[in-house]
Write a structure and sequence with these properties.
536 residues, single chain
Length: 536
Amino acid sequence: MAGATGTDTRSRRTRGARSAAAVATVLGLVATASACGDRAADGSGGSTVVFAVAADPGTLSPTTALASTALSMNAFAYDTLVHVAADGTVVPGVAEKWSATATSATFTIRPGVTCEDGSALTADDVAAEYNHIADPKNQSPMLGLSVPATAVAKADGATRTVTVTTTGPAPFIIEMTRMLPLMCRKSLAAPAALAKATNASGPYRLTEAVPGDHYTYVKRDGYTWGPSGATGEGLPGKVVFKVVPNESTAANLLMSGQIHGAVINGADQDRLDAAKVQNRSFQALFGQLLFNQAAGRPGADPAVRRALVQVLDLKELRNVATGGKGGAATAVGETAPTPCTGDTVTGNLPAHDPERAAAALTAAGWTKDGGTWTKDGRPLAVGFSYPTAQGPQVASAVELAVQRWTSFGVRATAKPVGSAGIIGTLAGGDWDLAWAPIGVTLPDQLTQFYDGPPPPKGNNFGSVSNPDYHRLALRAAARPGTDGCALWEAADAALVKNVDIVPFAARPNRYYAKGITFEVDGGGVVPSTLRRSADR
């Protein structure tokens, strides 16, 4: 990417561009529209569209929000420097042009961009946000996702430019800004105040927040700085995010005409397909096991990790979790559009072989006592944490895994986690094994989850320490853009071979719709493409 330059190509690349990507488990969405479906005279294309999310988003503060529900909602309220189109092309956002090397980037900020309080969003504001996230004392989980770990930003108000430099290589320094929700500087003084409020730089502003029930966003006037210069013309006047945890209920509402759209990934797909309800989809990692390798946890023993996986028939588990509609995972979390697309999973996972699992445990000093594996007088016991928002099929898959482990001699228990709590569970450290697919758009964004410090100082939830991954990721980071893909892919494969993570299921996330149209990418609905349609 050295020397790459972007220009303001306003006309052709709005479809498929988006400002944020999903992190952690994939969001369940339901899109609905109000009964007043006529197009509004103000060009809003209809008064209200409602998206029902499967779980409350938790905090919406742009510098701390990690839950995928929050990221999708924030995409409606906060714009970004650049966007990435469906074909992987980087297109202008708040930055009208840019240039980059492996250790620096310069962005020219588009004039006329404002926050919802009317204040101008300037180069000084953008530089201040970079420096706020990069400051370790602020402990922002966005460090490494949207801002390089060693970034320092300086603004030049006269030229409207922001220059970001790093002491080490930042191979995707431009692309990662699609996950940087831009804020006016005064909001940085108290970012926690935006947990249930906005000072939006994007097309919508939050006007009502009722946790556990709904969040209402109203379209801003004068918005003209969307992907490739997209404006608010044609966007719905109001967008409501309604918490609707049951997917079957969403399908019923869609079929009865009471809502206009829903993300349906379970058994209800069959009746929607039979009714020829249109859908948009993207392929995403759906099933992944993450072990807690902190001292004293069973996952700290590599023999235990490998044995637990060998006991399972991962194809069987995948079919239960996806209703037979999923396929084998080929990546450890990078979701399209992503620059590195090699298969890092096939052939690297332990094969189903309970006999080898028993032999491996025995070689590691475990013995079977009364039907239970023990070591140093302690039984092999694991709790399997999973998010209930993933639906009943995942719950069934978890129970199946627990049954297989129990039969093998492990004291296994299922531990459902409700609402947006899975991130809190992982960060809290009191867990053994989790259903935790982590989705990103760039391979270097995974390093904070599988390398470096665990919470509270970092996001290495599983306390993973993999020397091969660390070494290969460092080498990959020294090469700009796609030049490092072979090394990134080798690094990802090292995680799978060491059974640090077990990515075993991928599936298309399907967004069914009636009466609305939109495009989707790895983060969900692309806000600039949302429209009402004649299809009712």
